[in-house]
């Protein structure tokens, strides 16, 4: 008779950071055109500055008066790792070319008079952008362009092989996500595309156990990383909840509202749920008694995103709960503007299958009574 194989659950306190090129992933580092400019105008200069003046950066990052400033929060001992990362970024020629082409296109349009013919300008579009932009006039005959963002996601400018997840149990204070690359990774660094179905299999393991061979296959675990990965799992399903006594009433007409911190609110009524701007804390005994990931329902009908800032459209939380989310609702953006990337396209390319973009005052009807907390709306009973 064969021995019953032990099964493991993912620990609820495992922290995850979604990364692109070892920088914290958000709308401006995922969307191809915005990411290219952000890459060249912010990430590369920050690394170069740190490598010249590591002590200044370390001191600035630790100053309460300069909190949130442009300082790489890494000790001087990480110079070599940052140099390796900088060399890697500078070798990504496609991204550099796209950034330069966007800069050159802006200068090209500014140098042409308003009455210029688009037919004359199209041949001068920088080569890396040909086929990815449409030239336009605004109502005052000023030249402009529209990015065909969906095609950029299908091109070599969008590289999922640069995406990864960092998994660890450290309850450390994190370095500021916008200024500090993750070269110091205390846990397991998993090279995986955000849209990979294995991401859902991993986070579902908080509720559905896996054998060790299954875990090794999902996470592509090498022998040298086995012990590190084992610490992320436990034999017993986690019971870590802060709001264990949440009364999820099914009484008709009763609306319940649960506050998870920052802008995150869970609304429940008549067996339906809406989660707004999910940025949800991990379970920590030392923290104030507020709701955490373990307090979410088994299924979330709608996730509602109000805008694209990383503390509202947060991939760290969204990827963690993707397997239990029905539909994501986001605001419609300005269609092809570099400064306003499509949240819908980003989420679809990060593995979310049902994403709806609503314009101002548009509604989704899934129950009878209107619930309208934002310029776009969702209907549920109250």
TrEMBL record:
<dbReference type="Pfam" id="PF13483">
    <property type="entry name" value="Lactamase_B_3"/>
</dbReference>
<dbReference type="InterPro" id="IPR036866">
    <property type="entry name" value="RibonucZ/Hydroxyglut_hydro"/>
</dbReference>
<dbReference type="InterPro" id="IPR041141">
    <property type="entry name" value="CmlA_N"/>
</dbReference>
<feature type="domain" description="Diiron non-heme beta-hydroxylase N-terminal">
    <location>
        <begin position="10"/>
        <end position="235"/>
    </location>
</feature>
<protein>
    <submittedName>
        <fullName>MBL fold metallo-hydrolase</fullName>
    </submittedName>
</protein>
<dbReference type="Pfam" id="PF18456">
    <property type="entry name" value="CmlA_N"/>
</dbReference>
């Amino acid at each position: 008779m064969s021995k019953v194989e032990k099964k493991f659950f993912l620990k609820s306190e495992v922290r995850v950071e979604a990364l692109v090129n070892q920088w914290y992933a958000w709308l401006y580092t995922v969307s191809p055109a915005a990411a290219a400019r952000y890459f060249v105008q912010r990430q590369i200069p920050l690394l170069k500055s740190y490598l010249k003046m590591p002590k200044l950066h370390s001191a600035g990052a630790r100053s309460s008066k300069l909190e949130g400033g442009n300082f790489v929060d890494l000790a001087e001992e990480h110079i070599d790792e940052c140099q390796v990362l900088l060399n890697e970024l500078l070798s990504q020629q496609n991204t550099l070319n796209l950034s330069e082409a966007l800069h050159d296109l802006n200068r090209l349009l500014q140098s042409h008079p308003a009455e210029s013919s688009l037919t004359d300008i199209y041949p001068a579009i920088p080569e890396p952008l040909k086929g990815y932009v449409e030239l336009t006039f605004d109502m005052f005959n000023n030249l402009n362009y529209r990015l065909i963002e969906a095609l950029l996601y299908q091109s070599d400018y969008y590289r999922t092989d640069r995406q990864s997840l960092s998994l660890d149990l450290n309850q450390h204070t994190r370095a500021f996500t916008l200024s500090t690359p993750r070269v110091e990774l205390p846990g397991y660094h998993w090279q995986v595309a955000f849209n990979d179905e294995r991401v859902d299999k991993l986070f579902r393991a908080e509720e559905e156990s896996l054998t060790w061979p299954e875990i090794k296959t999902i996470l592509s675990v090498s022998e040298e990383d086995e012990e590190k990965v084992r610490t992320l799992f436990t034999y017993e399903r986690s019971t870590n909840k802060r709001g264990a006594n949440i009364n999820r009433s099914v009484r008709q007409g009763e609306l319940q509202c649960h506050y998870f911190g920052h802008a995150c609110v869970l609304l429940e009524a008549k067996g339906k749920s809406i989660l707004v701007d999910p940025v949800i804390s991990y379970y920590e005994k030392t923290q104030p008694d507020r709701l955490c990931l373990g307090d979410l329902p088994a299924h979330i009908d709608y996730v509602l995103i109000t805008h694209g800032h990383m503390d509202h459209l947060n991939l760290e939380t969204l990827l963690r709960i993707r397997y239990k989310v029905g539909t994501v609702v986001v605001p419609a953006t300005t269609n092809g503007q570099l400064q306003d990337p499509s949240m819908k396209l980003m989420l679809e390319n990060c593995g979310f299958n049902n994403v709806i973009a609503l314009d101002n005052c548009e509604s989704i009807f899934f129950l009878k009574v209107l619930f309208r907390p934002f310029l776009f709306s969702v209907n549920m009973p109250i």
